[in-house]
Amino acid sequence: MAIEVRIPTILRTYTDGEKSVTGEGSNIKELFEDLESRHAGIQDRLVDGGELRRFVNVYLNDEDVRFLDGISTKVSDGDNVTILPAVAGGSGLDASPGMLR
After folding, report:
1. 81 and 5 in contact (C-beta within 8 Å)?
2. InterPro entries in the record, alphabetically (predicted)?
3. Are 67 and 42 in contact (CB under 8 A)?
């Protein structure tokens, strides 16, 4: 079963710079275990304590797996999985008119 996994720039050091890799498994957990077998270290960046890390978003065919079955979400041959790190932060400045110069 081949599942395409899109890798964000920050994790491409684990995939030798590849933007996309293929993996196998019947659910997201097994898919990540398969990726780990070929791209050592990547699973620790995605999973913590058997659950998706808080600041990692995973989409199955453009649907957030947190609204499906999380790490237990079933995957099938031909599916696309996208991994996106959550973006947070900001300057902390008041953005009221006249405050930024």
Report:
1. yes
2. Beta-grasp_dom_sf, Mopterin_synth/thiamin_S_b, Sulfur_Carrier/Prot_Modifier, ThiS/MoaD-like
3. no
Instruction: Name the 3-class secondary structure at 5.
Output: strand
Q: What is the DSSP letter of 74?
A: B
In whole angstroms, give the CA distance from residue 12 to residue 20. Answer: 9
Domains and CATH numbers, the chain: 3-85 (3.10.20.30)
For residue 40, what is the DSSP state? Answer: T
**What pLDDT does 4 receive?**
97
Give the C-alpha separation, 23 to 1, whole Å. Answer: 8
**Sequence letter at residue 29:** K
Helix (H) or strand (E) holding 20: strand 20-23
